[in-house]
Write a structure and sequence with these properties.
Layout: H1 9-20, H2 32-41, H3 47-60, H4 64-68, H5 72-79, H6 86-102, H7 110-114, H8 121-132, H9 141-151, H10 160-173, H11 179-192, H12 211-214, E1 232-242, E2 245-250, E3 261-262, E4 264-265, H13 273-280, E5 286-296, E6 301-310, H14 319-323, E7 332-335, H15 337-342, H16 347-358
Parallel strand pairs: 1-6
Antiparallel strand pairs: 1-2, 1-4, 2-3, 2-7, 5-6
Helix pairs in contact: 1-11, 2-3, 2-8, 8-11, 9-10, 9-11
């Protein structure tokens, strides 16, 4: 006898997932450590970008205990280019805490996971459902979008109350047998079909019951909060080199880009003209103007101009007065090519570091 009833959301979603699931490295062996690492990397990062980082990280630190024993600079170096470096530091701190308090095994318990640095409600839910088989919701922006459109609910992914309502809805629909697959199916659907712009409704396994599609509200749901404008700092980066060495400084242990290395800077928004005039009067300093760039953080943007300065010897000499004009700078040091390549640099200035490593400097002065 033919079953004429409509499938449930879970049946339709899991059937689609079984046919189309993406082959991602963290899905091949869903241990708590691998799921945790993947979910942290995927915060603010596209899947295809995260894959090589995930594989390199696991090759270096195959177990949580290996990570817990790592040096912070080694962890930051592997994270180089992913941005949001607090994620890497929190991973390391949490790994040390797990080794100390849980014998090196991530706990399959919500409160214990939430107490670890860097693990929020979503990440805890993902670990519990994907790696521990617990019936727990894992609600991120993709899931809020899918459930908001399916149910016709005017929710916002940025609202904690709306995310809780979406989580309750997910739990009500989640089957007992495959909670991890159900959560991953929702994530995949939001990432590949139920897109923020131009959703692929014709390919959606839930189109038959989607309230937003029925009422022509897919463009209006979920609610979108306008992103606030961020301030822009104008910065002058100084790549100071001498005799095959480069001068670098390590950022403070807290705050923006904590613990990472950069080249030297003039202080933010400082008028660079007096410094450029000073350089014009120094025949012993060879200067090259480098391309400018804009780098955006979540709360701030940097407009970066850059100069490459070749000094006659590895001594900042009078240059230090300009660098320390607005207070003491982080302690600097001279490094060779190998150290420059190995130190962890933020993406904001890595383009300039890569240029130094790949393109030898041609010491011909140019006009400022």
């Amino acid at each position: 006898m033919t079953d004429l009833r409509e499938p449930t959301l879970a049946e339709a979603l899991l059937g689609w997932f079984d046919r189309t699931r993406r082959d991602l490295p963290w899905r091949r062996d869903r241990t708590p450590y691998r799921v945790w690492l993947a979910e942290i990397m995927l915060q603010q990062t596209q899947v295809q970008t995260a894959i090589p980082y995930f594989e390199r990280f696991l090759a270096r630190f195959p177990t949580l205990a290996d990570l817990a024993a790592a040096d912070e600079q080694a962890v930051l170096k592997l994270w180089e280019g992913l941005g949001y470096y607090s994620r890497a530091r929190n991973l390391l701190h949490a790994a040390k805490q797990v080794v100390r308090d849980f014998g090196g095994q991530l706990p399959c318990e919500f409160k214990a996971l939430r107490a670890l640095p860097g693990i929020g409600e979503y990440t805890a839910g993902a670990i519990l459902s994907l790696a521990c088989g617990a019936k727990t919701a894992a609600v991120d922006g993709n899931v809020v979008r899918v459930i908001s459109r399916w149910s016709g609910s005017a929710w916002s992914a940025k609202s904690a109350q709306d995310r809780r309502q979406a989580a309750d809805y997910v739990l009500a629909q989640m089957p007992d047998s495959r909670p991890g697959d159900f959560n991953e199916a929702l994530m995949d659907l939001g990432a590949t079909v139920c897109l923020p712009q131009n959703p692929r409704c014709a390919a959606c396994p839930l189109a038959w019951g989607c309230q937003a599609l029925r009422t022509n509200l897919t463009g209006a749901l979920p609610l979108r909060d306008k992103s606030p404008a961020v301030p822009t700092e104008h910065r002058l980066l100084l790549l100071v080199a001498a005799a095959g060495l480069w001068h670098v400084r390590q950022r403070p242990s807290d705050g923006l880009l904590a613990g990472l290395f950069t080249f030297d800077w003039l202080s933010p928004n400082r008028d660079p003209k007096p410094f450029r005039i000073y350089l014009q009067g120094r025949d012993d300093i060879l200067v090259r103007t480098l391309p400018s760039l804009m780098h955006r953080f979540s709360h701030l943007a940097w407009h970066i101009d850059a100069l490459r300065l070749e000094l006659p010897r590895a001594d900042l000499d009078e240059l230090a007065c300009w660098l320390d004009a607005n207070g003491p700078q982080p302690e600097g040091r001279w490094v060779d090519r190998q150290d420059l390549d190995q130190l962890p640099f933020p993406a904001a200035v890595d383009r300039y570091r890569r240029q130094e490593l790949d393109e030898p400097f041609n010491p011909s002065p140019v006009s400022l």
